[in-house]
Amino acid sequence: MNTSTHPIITFIGGGNMASAIIGGLVRQGHPTSALQVVEPWDEQRARLAQQFPGMTMLPAASAELKSSDLVVWAVKPQTFKDAALAAGPFLGDALHLSVAAGITSESMAGWLQTQRIVRAMPNTPALVGLGMTGLMARAAVSDADRALVERVVRTTGELVWVNVESDLDAVTALSGSGPAYVFYFLEAMRDAGARMGLAPEVAQQLAIGTFIGAATLAQRSSEPLQTLRERVTSKGGTTYAAITSMDASGVKAKFADALFAAQKRAAELGAEFGK
Ligand SMILES: NC(=O)C1=CN([C@@H]2O[C@H](COP(=O)(O)OP(=O)(O)OC[C@H]3O[C@@H](n4cnc5c(N)ncnc54)[C@H](O)[C@@H]3O)[C@@H](O)[C@H]2O)C=CC1
Ligand SMILES: O=C(O)[C@@H]1CCC=N1
């Protein structure tokens, strides 16, 4: 471990997720001089260099990576193996944190020849410090390594640990992909509001405010979700009409099907690209 108070953190892949985590770290005072990114795409390297001046930007893995205390894997599952085999020889004795969906720590251990591996499943609200991340550590990961990962991840929002690695596929289906479901509902609410005659931007403002308000109420309340829902639902009233319509169309069951499809896809990605 580097002796300064700030560990050297290397990102392999500098896309959406890496940017969100780098943003969190920089907001919390991690110096850009202690951050490096391997990103082959010139435009993306230029964008990151402009957004976070002072970071070491590398087009490919090279000897500079030797100083890494923590390596964050933020490439697509499809490119993980190639990236791991290319960077592995330069990585010394670093701790590894992967955010890739599906790719198991067992695959990573084989490619990187180390057991110091933590897997994370973050989500894009990390961009605004309101991320939700699920974490899982291999047995060989020390308490000090877990603490370092927690310090990094907390700069982007909240976290939960799971003990069984396959649970990360469920975390992926729920909170990893989850922001997309929320945007999907927001689009549906905005479009329905517009069809009822509201200006689309007014409908969107109402929809977003409602999500934030309801989620905050649920977070702060000690009451069950069902009670909160029932409190909105006057017998024979408007909400009752809406919920009855959703129940008749099987919306809850269809929504569950969607999450199971995401969970299944996470496992498939691991099987397909983890070999
Ligand atoms: N976007 C999301 O909401 C979430 C994504 N993830 C996971 O994060 C990972 C990255 O996703 P995004 O950031 O959305 O993708 P992205 O496509 O924005 O970023 C991936 C970056 O990796 C770069 N890259 C490609 N080959 C490389 C190599 N050999 N070495 C280094 N960099 C390379 C690409 O140029 C690209 O900029 C994925 O594995 C995904 O499963 C996890 C949680 C949420
Ligand atoms: O869609 C995906 O595969 C990634 C993982 C979770 C969110 N985005």
Automatic annotation (TrEMBL):
One of its GO terms (cellular component) is cytoplasm. NADP(+) binds at residues 12-17, 74-77. It holds the Pfam family P5CR_dimer. InterPro entries: 6-PGluconate_DH-like_C_sf, NAD(P)-bd_dom_sf, P5C_Rdtase_cat_N, P5CR-like_CS, P5CR_dimer, Pyrroline-COOH_reductase. Residues 165-269 form the Pyrroline-5-carboxylate reductase dimerisation domain. The keyword Cell membrane does not apply. Its main location: cytoplasm. Pathway: Amino-acid biosynthesis; L-proline biosynthesis; L-proline from L-glutamate 5-semialdehyde: step 1/1. The keyword Lipoprotein does not apply. SUPFAM superfamilies: 6-phosphogluconate dehydrogenase C-terminal domain-like (SSF48179), NAD(P)-binding Rossmann-fold domains (SSF51735). Belongs to the pyrroline-5-carboxylate reductase family. Catalyzes the reduction of 1-pyrroline-5-carboxylate (PCA) to L-proline. NCBIfam families: proC. This is Pyrroline-5-carboxylate reductase. It comes from Hydrogenophaga taeniospiralis CCUG 15921. The lineage of its organism: Bacteria, Pseudomonadati, Pseudomonadota, Betaproteobacteria, Burkholderiales.
